[in-house]
Amino acid sequence: MRKFLNVLKKCPLFFDLSDNNIITMLECLEAKTDIFDKNYTILSEGTPAKYIGIVLSGSVQITRTDYYGNRSILGNLCEGELFSEAFACVQMTSMPVSAIANERSKIMFIDCSHILHTCQKDCPHHQQLVYNLMKVLALKTVMFQQKIEIISKRTTREKLLTYLTICAKKNNKNSFKIPFNRQELADYLEVDRSGLSAEISKLRKENILECKRNYFKLL
Amino acid sequence: MRKFLNVLKKCPLFFDLSDNNIITMLECLEAKTDIFDKNYTILSEGTPAKYIGIVLSGSVQITRTDYYGNRSILGNLCEGELFSEAFACVQMTSMPVSAIANERSKIMFIDCSHILHTCQKDCPHHQQLVYNLMKVLALKTVMFQQKIEIISKRTTREKLLTYLTICAKKNNKNSFKIPFNRQELADYLEVDRSGLSAEISKLRKENILECKRNYFKLL
DNA sequence: TCCGTTTTGTTGAAATTTCAACACACTTTA
DNA sequence: TAAAGTGTGTTGAAATTTCAACAAAACGGA
Q1: Closest listed residue to residue A72, CA positions, set B172, B149, B45
Q2: pLDDT digits (tens, 9 = 90+) for B79-103
Q3: Please, which residues have CB within 8 angstroms of residue A34's CB and are 6 or more apart in sequence?
Q4: Across the interface, do B152 and A85 touch by the CB < 8 Å criterion?
Q5: Which residue of chain B has the CA closest to A152?
Q6: Deepest of A28, A106, A213, B186, by most Cβ within 10 A of its Cβ?
Q7: Secondary structure element (H or E) that encloses residue B176, with its range
Q8: Which of B64, B62, B92 lies closest to B76 in space, CA to CA?
Q9: Protein-contacted positions of strand C (CB under 7 Å)
Q10: How many helices (H) and strands (E) does chain B have?
Q11: Buried b (16+ CB within 10 A) or exposed e, B76-113
Q12: What values do phi and psi take at B169, rounded to 5?
């Protein structure tokens, strides 16, 4: 556990908690970890939500697949980020999404009810956890709003440019790498891959952006 | 204040609190109320988020308008529901959406920092408020996921049917009223109004649904 | 009831997306 | 190094959406 302390210290769930406090809490919370190989399902659509997931290493994609097999990517999570926290908070009986390991990843699981209900030992910093979780939930809402802003645009070009602009803002730079390949980007923007490739070509010809694989630069 | 107690008792923020507790808390929280006429702006895109809004009467729409003047409707809130809670929690300096009175509405405002930081009197049930707010935030995330599920569909027909199916589930009935007129429904589904009307006509001819204004019945 | 206003339905043309199929570049593995 | 697999770009046809404009229906006062 201690090995991943530097990751957990960056994790917003443990914001403002000392190393020792984090370690003590992990015991109270009965945190467990598991390793998943690339493309393995960490949490499965349709199953009950009980655990909050924390990415200790690697990365995770949140996806949904409809009847027709169309995949939709809700987001990509890196080291220190949480997933499934909202569903676990409301104890959803059937999760609307799956969590898939994007590469070999180590995941920590925390039973959400252990955060919501104070443990017997009544750890003094439990309250901080609750506030932190609240912040995480609020930020997730903001993130989803952004995703809605992107996919509510009517054309592939607008969706792409809205997404890239948000990326540029986040990186404070107009050049950056995105965590998706073309198909994944298409699934995130909810558009057709070939149409997306065509649009990227156009934008390149119009000198609006440079792009090489998952590297982009806005001009 | 007391006049709206029956609404506040239904409000998820005050879940599991007695009438007296609610009244006491409202003072600690320095809750204020205001009345807005139809189409008036309650909270404005681009301004700092500080207050949580609660609909005491009437109804509120959460909207965003882009450069080109395209309106997007994020959701519709009825009596007892909250808005702006996520933005207020993270003390956003520039809200990404506006809140508009859908009809003459009475709104209660609570400074979010009063919930996040315990008051001097240290009211014994303050903690319950925090838990309740957390539930609200988690449910909002779930709601936005649903909206993403709807608008990630590629055709107007699929978007509409996905939305109506969710409505039917929520109402536990295959006939129900929706809180939108045609233009608003189009702005919620992020599609063209005339195309939406055409699609509704088709579905009617195919005996897949009945519809009269904002009343729908799935067959 | 009548009139003005708002809401809804309809239509055709233009723009855009999706779909399927294939070529090419790049990686990985044998 | 060759072969297989993955990722990306390109294309044209079909399907769908958007846009603009107008007609019809419903609604809300006076």
Answers
A1: B149
A2: 999 999 999 999 999 999 999 999 9
A3: A106, A107, A109
A4: no
A5: B190
A6: B186
A7: strand B175-177
A8: B62
A9: 7-12, 16-21
A10: 8, 11
A11: bbebbbbbbbbbbbbebeebbbbbbbbeebbbbbbbbe
A12: -60, -45
Does A117 touch chain B if contact means CB atoms closer than 8 Å? no
Residue of A46, A67, A72 lying closest to A148 (CA atoms): A72
pLDDT in tens, B49-58: 999 999 999 9
CA A82 to chain B, closest CA, distance in angstroms equals 13
**Residues B190, A89: C-beta atoms closer than 8 Å:** no
Residue B186, token pair as written in the block: 């189009």
Relative to beta strand A215-218, strand B51-57 is unpaired
Q: List, edge to edge, every strand of the sheet that includes B51-57.
A: B32-36, B105-111, B51-57, B82-83
Q: What is the largest CA-CA distance in chain B?
A: 64
- Tokens representing residue B158 in the block: 């699929």
CB A79 within 8 A of CB A28: no
Q: Tokens representing B103?
A: 């009809």
d(CA B132, CA B62): 22
The model's pTM: 0.94
CA B99-B103-B104 angle, to 5 degrees, is 100
Residue B196: C-alpha distances to residues B165, B168, B184, B218 (Å): 16, 19, 11, 16
More confident residue, A197 or B66: A197
pLDDT exceeds cutoff 90 at A1? no
Radius of gyration in angstroms for the set of CA atoms belonging to chain B, rounded to a whole number: 19
pLDDT for A120? 60
What is the longest distance spanned by two Cα atoms in chain A? 64
Q: Kind and range of the H or E element at B173?
A: none
